[in-house]
Amino acid sequence: MQKPNQWVLLMSTSIVSFMSTIDASIVNIAVPKISRDLRIPNNQAEWIVSVYLVLICVLLILFGELSDQVGRVRLFQIGTVIFVLGSLACGLSINLPTILAARVLQALGASMTMATNFGIITDIFPLSRHGLALGVNSAFVQIGNIAGPGVGGLILSIASWHDIFFVNVPIGIVAFFLGHHFFPHPKPLRTRPKIDIWGFLAYTGLILSFFVMIFLGQMIGFGHWKIIGLAILAGGFLIGFILIERQQAEPLIDLRLFHNLGFTFGILSAMLVYMCGYFNNVIMPFYLQDRLLLSSGLSGLILMAVPIVNVFSAPTGGAISDHLGAEKVSFMALFIFLVPEVIFILVTPSWSIIWLIIGLALFGCANGAFQNNPMIMGNAAPEFQGIAGSIAALGRNLGMSMGLALATSLLYHGISLKAGQRMTTYPDQHPDWFVFGMHYAYMFSLGLILIAIVLIGIVLKRQTRRIS
Q1: What is the pTM of this model?
Q2: CA distances (Å), 450 to each of 268, 329, 333, 446, in order?
Q3: 249-261 pLDDT, tens per residue?
Q4: Is Glycoprotein included in the keywords of this UniProt record (predicted)?
C-alpha cells in the first residue's frame, strides 16, 4: 500500500508535466492574434513556438546529467519556479523581443522539469507500481501534447492570448508548494557537478542543425541542396558527439545505455508513435473543417475523443504493465493502432462521422495503452534514471517535431501527385485532392506503426530467449 503523499507527489509532477508539454502546442492557435497585437509578421510570430521547442531539446540532456549529480527533486523544484516566472513574463510581454526572452525562460524551466519527472516517479514508487505511476504521468503528458489547440481555442474565445500564459502561474505555485511539503530532500551526490562541455557543444550543434533542416525543409522542400547540406552537417555533429562521448570519463550521455536493446528500441518506438500522433494534429482539423465543413467548435469536440479515451487508457495500461510487462502491453497497443490507421486511410466524406469518432477514440486508447515510459525507464539502471528520463523526453519532442514536418510534407506531396503540380495550400476548387493527400499521408503513418511493431517484437523475442 502506498503512502498518500506518494500520490500527491505524482499529481504535483504530473501537473507540471502537463503545463510544460501543453505550452509546446497551445501557443500555435494564438499565433495569429499575437501577430496582430504585436504588429509582427506571422513568420516572426512562429519563432515564439519554435524557440521553446528547440531550446527544450537542447537542454534536456544537460539537465538529465545534472539531475543525477545534484538531485532530481532540487532541479525539478527550481525548474517549476523558473517556468512559472517565464509564464508570467510571457503574459506581460508587449513586443517580440520580450516574449522571446520570456519563452527562453519558460523553456529553461520546462526542460528542468521534463528531465527529472520520470526519475522522481521511479524513485518514490516501488518497482511493482512503476507502470501505474508512469501511466498516470503519461496521461497528463499526452493530453498536454494533444489538447493544446483545443484548450488554447477555449481560452481565446473568452479571454486574450496573455491569459494562455497567466493560467500557468497559480497552478505552478500550487504544484511547487505541494512538492516543497511532500518531496524528499536527499543530499546531492556532488556539490560541484561535472559537465561534459565538448560533448554538450557537439550535441547542441546536432540539435540546432537538425531543427533548422526540419523548419527550412518545410518551406523550400527537403530535396533542396541547403537541406541536404544541413543533413550532412547534422550527421557530422552526430559522429563527433559519439567520438567525444567514447573518450570522456564522465560523458554527457553514457552510451552504455544504448547497449540495452529494450531501452534503445523503446526510445525509437516511442518516437514513431509520437510522430503518428502529429498526423492527426495536422491533417484532421483540415479534414473536419475544410472538407466536411464542420464548425471549429464541433471539430474540436470530435478531436477531443483522443485525449478523453487516452486519460483512461494510460493509467489502465500502466497498471496492466505492472503485471504483464510494459513491452507486452505496448506490443498489444501497437496492434490497436492499426485499426484507426486503416480507417483514416479509407474514410471518405460519404462515410458517417461515427467512423471518424471511432477511429479517433481507438487511437486515443492505443496511445494511452502504449507504455513507452515504463518500458524506457525499466530498461535503465538506477544510476541512469535521470539521463534516461531526459532521453525519453527528448525522444518525445523529436518525434513531435518530425511528425509535424512529415505529416505536412506527405499531405501536400500527395495533393501534388493528384493535381499534377506542386501544391502547398488547401485545394479549395478540388477538395477530393485533399482526401487523396490525406490517404497518402496516413499510409506512411501506418508504415511507422508497423516498424514500431517489429522493434518491440524483437525486444519481446530476446526476452523470451533469455527466460528459456
Answers
A1: 0.80
A2: 13, 16, 12, 6
A3: 888 888 888 888 8
A4: no
